[in-house]
Amino acid sequence: MIERRTFRAMGTEIELLVEADGAAGALEAAEQEFHRLEALLSRFREDSELSRLNRDGTLAAGPDLCRVVGLALAARERTGGRFDPTVHDALVAAGYDRSFEQIDPRCQAPCPAPGAAGGAVSVEGSRIELDADVRLDLGGIGKGYAAERAAEILATAGPCLVNAGGDIAVRGGRWPVGVETAAEPLTLELSRGGLATSGRDRHRWQRNGRELHHLIDPRTGEPAETDLLRVTVVAPDAVEAEVTAKSLFLAGADRAAREADAAGVAAVLVTDDGRTIFAGGLAA
């Protein structure tokens, strides 16, 4: 029997599935883990650890914030800066200064100059320090981390799947997961690992007549310009899937396909002109 729970956290719909009887306790604990991590990692909550760090520039942080910041910095290094948690000010400049459902989709305010990315961040023990004028956004990687933590809890009850607005973590079982292509949906069967999608077709809005989205190119501080509409990646966990999907999206279609093939990363690339490219061992 599959038990299911849905709720909202981290600005999105969360779905928990576990193949077990009497899993109410595990479902409750997994839901509470999402709420606990949101209270620590959200840049939209003034009392969160992340907001305190962004305001003060330094913080004796708890283990979860230290862990997620460490994962984000390792991802920045590994992707050559395509994934970068210091895009906070660029997101704010683009108009993503509140949770997405509160953004005016047709705001007429002018766009400020984009915020800088790539500043120094250090983690020494429990102490996190930011360079001057550096602030962090941990939205995507935070969701992946929360999905993994919730899956660890649910797995004590049985095979499970956690879906955090498209960031998916799986522990055991056989779970069909739908992936959008340029044509009809594709179904992948997952029994472990994670899946994530990065795209500019959902979180988008207008600012003074200009269409914007939330995927910032750290090199420019602007919403990324690429020939890709959407990238879906399967990886060993939801954090790695989130990072890789963002990195491949910024790479553009041709380079993303080559990189996914070389790394053996299963990826579905949907282009602006309506093509679907399967890479990393996937085939149509």
Helix/strand layout:
Blueprint: E1 2-9, E2 12-19, H1 24-41, H2 49-56, E3 58-60, H3 63-78, H4 88-94, E4 106-107, E5 121-124, E6 127-130, H5 139-154, E7 160-164, E8 167-179, E9 186-199, E10 204-207, E11 210-213, E12 216-217, E13 222-223, E14 228-235, H6 238-251, H7 253-263, E15 267-271, E16 276-279
Parallel strand pairs: 4-10
Antiparallel strand pairs: 1-2, 2-7, 3-6, 5-6, 7-8, 8-9, 9-14, 10-11, 12-13, 14-15, 15-16
Distance between the termini: 32 Å
Portion of residues within helices: 25-40%
| Count of alpha and pi helical runs | 7
Shape: globular
User: In CATH terms, what is the fold-level topology?
Assistant: T-fold
Strand fraction band?
25-35%
Query: Kindly state the mean pLDDT as a whole number?
Result: 90
Oligomer: single chain
* CATH class (first level) name: Alpha Beta
Which structural class is indicated by helix and strand composition? Answer: alpha+beta
Overall number of strands: 16
What composes the largest sheet? Answer: 8 strands, antiparallel
CATH H level: which superfamily? ApbE-like domains
CATH architecture: Roll
Give the C-alpha Rg.
Answer: 18 Å
Strand order of the largest sheet: 1-2-7-8-9-14-15-16
Number of domains: 1
Helix/strand order, N-terminal first: EEHHEHHEEEHEEEEEEEEHHEE
Poorly predicted segments: none
Describe this entry's structure for a reader:
Helix content is 32%, strand content 32%. The protein is α+β, with helices and mostly antiparallel strands and 284 residues long. Helix 1 packs antiparallel against helix 5 and helix 5 packs antiparallel against helix 6.
